[in-house]
Specification:
Length: 196
């Protein structure tokens, strides 16, 4: 989907996603000391706003102006500051070694494009910084619920760790996430890696 399609998707008055942060983002980040964080593909800002509420200085990037407008409103409602950047993550150049945390949550791109984004994410990490990637796993098509139905944009732990050559991978696995109150579960890829 391009930015116009995402603008249209976000155009309703309600949030498309929850205002609450992703459960895996909270679990993997809550014990890290706050510093500078970069949220690539921030959408409506739920993870960026939560990070800011935890003391992080957050830069959040997305190519949907409508999504970022909703994110700004959410940040104001929660009383936090975030640096919102309207840009396509494929062309965005973060500062080198500038962030203690880089988050890539549910950025469902085909492998060449995602690899490109992940290489920039690695470059943006400061020494000792953490990269956290969470996204819909390819096994979700047959064994999970919801998510994109195009296997070309779905993750595996191996597809995410492959471009992370300069990092130490701490966790790379499939995780399950409840989908609403349906009793069904989605299957996600979760990768956490640190720049030595």
């Amino acid at each position: 989907m391009d930015s116009a399609e995402w603008d249209q998707r976000y155009a309703g008055s309600e949030l498309v996603w929850s205002a609450e942060p992703n459960r895996f983002v909270v679990a993997e980040v809550q014990d890290l000391p706050p510093g500078r964080a970069l949220d690539l593909g921030a959408g409506e800002g739920r993870n960026a706003v939560w990070l800011a509420s935890q003391g992080w200085q957050v830069t959040a990037v997305d190519f949907s102006a409508v999504g970022l407008d909703k994110a700004r409103r959410l940040a104001r409602a929660r009383g936090v500051q975030v640096d919102w950047v309207l840009a396509d993550v494929l062309g965005y150049q973060p500062g080198a070694s500038a962030f203690q945390l880089v988050l890539v949550a549910y950025l469902q791109l085909a492998a060449p494009s995602l690899d490109h984004v992940l290489r920039h994410a690695v470059t943006a990490l400061a020494h000792g910084g953490t990269l956290l990637v969470v996204g819909h796993d390819v096994t979700n098509l047959d064994d999970g619920a919801g998510g994109p139905q195009d296997p070309a944009v779905l993750h595996t732990p191996e597809s995410i760790t492959r471009p992370l050559r300069r990092l130490t991978v701490q966790r790379a696995e499939r995780v399950r996430r409840p989908v609403g109150d349906s009793g069904r579960e989605a299957i996600d890829t979760l990768v956490r890696a640190v720049r030595p």
